């Protein structure tokens, strides 16, 4: 017993020593610090660990190119452990203790909401890389993931045009992202002339595994003589039993296609993809995109992780774009000062991985292409459609009555995230 | 105008390709044309191939449908491909002869989407209507029935005229009736078609009839409405049966998850929070077994579950044995400490699995005999659920026999009913405790094998079932195996009847509230134990 305590103590001392060494080294070098706020443990670790690795890779690549403003970049990684209040604490630690120049992080909307007050209070910069429900625009946050009009709406358009779908099942997990997205989609479909009785909305709990009734309901709903499709905002684990049940009840992608917003390469890796083949997903990036930038990115990623089978996905591309935008804005401004960078980054355009350029809009969202992919047996996507040009992210949906009159423009003199064009005042919803 | 021109050119094309020699090159040219243009033009290209009416196009179309059709980047020639290690074997789409191999880089896939695949099904259906094999003809008729494209009517009627097999003829007549509804045939024909669909169209005819009822007027609409009403009446009846089946299926999943707990908690009174992790260990054992089989003996894959069953029982059982000997035996009679200690163990087991196998889901495949569905009248039984119901019943009866008919079962019951008396009769009570706990855990392990077929195999697997398991055991009555069976089934069926009305989220909450109210009324559950054991 005594030896164990002894070993523990020595290990503790060793780590402490190592930690002190690194901080000492850091102070000596005078680096620019970049915060990474992704869960490395708990339920979200599955998805967020990859993003942490992607950020480390981007920072390493930038340092190889000579760093930024003649200084080396230094990553500060913290672990908020999938615990929403802890996100706020860790954000405070990054900004207050480590004095980072920018933070890249968060996955779930609830964790983002929890750090928002910290970023506005301490005046930091956050790059948020995941598709989300919109209805938000903050001065200190840059949204590099898709807003609903950059993923959900084009996906529905694809089904309307190419599959001539007339009946819609909006199926989602019961939390804020599916509920808001479905509210927007419902309003959009109705504006396209879809009748109330041709829309079926269904919510299930997290990790739902018994899909028999719901799939059979979808089957019945789809047998009204009109082409039917499912728009799925089903999250994470619940997807596999859902697709399995579809397959078992004999519903193929040709009969009732499912288009998903939360199923990407990372989620498909290591899954029995057979029941999923032919179903669809909408993203702004797929690993199968054919472009020189993407090829180079995948190669660097595989080399960095040392694993031939690691896949790339959409939120990684969002970090790639966000990080490069920040680098470019800092170079333009000649400083990492937060207020200057926030002003300078608007209008900055950097290459995205699908062979075009993405630009930062005044509403702190970016322009992106929207791609529709079909799931293949190897867990990759085959791109079957893409928007003609870039789609600009819309913070406030045009299809929700109380959001349609709001605009966001962080350029002076407006400098407002929720400007009401009817009353010509700043503030109100979401402030 | 455009609409007219296309069939005309196709017709001309048809005449042009009549001589076989030029047909060969013509069809080849049309197939090679698939390598050009965008996805949006492909529909026209497929139409052109279909217009040749040449059944030799079928393999190429089939390959296109399955995503096996590639073209060589250098000369844009289209080939059917087969994977050969890292390279692709090229097969000439018409002659079916081998035409060399190429690397993946030199080839490019001919893309399709769902809509094109439907079109291809249709085309293949029309092209194979005259096939020699009756099964192929039935399949062809079935695809035509599904799409009911008026363009196939002529081919179909020609096929009907020379069909002799009664079964095939019925399938073709069904398809014909479905098409007639879409054409502007006279009312009498349509009514006849409606009657045919109503009498033997099955459930799939309902959408056609509903659409017809909405579209038409007069006598046709009346006939359609009548047929719809009739179909809906039978459908409603079948639906009730289907819901009961879903309930039984959910019930047997609950039963499987809870039955091990019925032994450890129900019989021994140990609140074992690590029960879910025993289930998880069983599921991971299945995963490991399947991985080994995939790597070494792929032929045995269909038997993987049979191999995994005893192993899962041993792994989880051994784990339970160690848990009882190492932790729980020191805590008998202290439920709160037991609860905390076993909860700690469950966290340790979860993290251990996460460290060994990683946090992501593991792929556990379904053997072929567990995929697909069986139809019985208007009921659909998916194979995996059906087997799980059967399996749950087997496990239940086996456990019942062990408890009631074996010496070990007798000792077990003796110990739980009166420990001191059992001990003085010469039973080694600590040993019986350990074995009982191992039995309960082992059963949880084999439940894990079954659950791996329908749920995600991840470190969190057990957590999803632990609450449900306790719910079932408490509801059914602690210490009573029959109670667990009835409890699981009634919870399953009640859940499934509530789900369509209340939604999945609310149904779960309602069930929980009902159980709370029930426990208030009958604290000992459905089947309360009576006798001296209760007072002890």
What does this structure look like?
The complex is a heterodimer of chains A (431) and B (536). Chain A is an alpha/beta fold and 431 residues long. Chain A folds into 2 domains: 2-146 and 296-367, Rossmann fold; 149-289 and 372-392, Response regulator (Rossmann fold, 3-Layer(aba) Sandwich). Chain A has a 7-stranded mixed beta sheet with strand order 7-6-8-9-10-14-15, with helices on both faces. In chain A, strand 8, helix 8 and strand 9 (258-260) form a beta-alpha-beta unit. Chain A contains 13 helices and 19 strands. Residues 10-21 of chain B have low confidence and may be disordered. Chain B contains 21 helices and 7 strands. In chain B, the strands form 2 sheets. Chain B has a 5-stranded antiparallel beta sheet with strand order 4-3-2-1-5. A two-stranded antiparallel ribbon of chain B has the order 6-7. Chain B has 3 domains: 2-117, no CATH class; 128-216; 238-535, Orthogonal Bundle (ABC transporter involved in vitamin B12 uptake, BtuC). In chain B, a hairpin with a 2-residue loop joins strand 2 and strand 3 (87-91). Chains A and B meet through strand 7, helix 7, helix 8 and strand 15 of A and helix 5, helix 10, helix 11, helix 15 and helix 20 of B.
Quick overview:
The complex is a heterodimer of chains A (431) and B (536). Chain A has 431 residues and is an alpha/beta fold. Chain A is built from 13 helices and 19 strands.
Indicate the low-confidence ranges of chain B by residue numbers: 10-21
Gyration radius over CA of chain A: 23 Å
Number of strands of chain A: 19
Instruction: Estimate what percentage of residues of chain B fall within beta strands.
Output: 5-15%
Overall geometry of chain A: globular
Number of domains of chain B: 3
CATH homologous superfamily heading of the largest domain in chain A = Response regulator
Distance between the termini of chain A: 57 Å
Helix content of chain A: 25-40%
**Proper CATH architecture of the largest domain in chain A:** 3-Layer(aba) Sandwich
What structural class is derived from the secondary structure elements of chain B?
mainly alpha
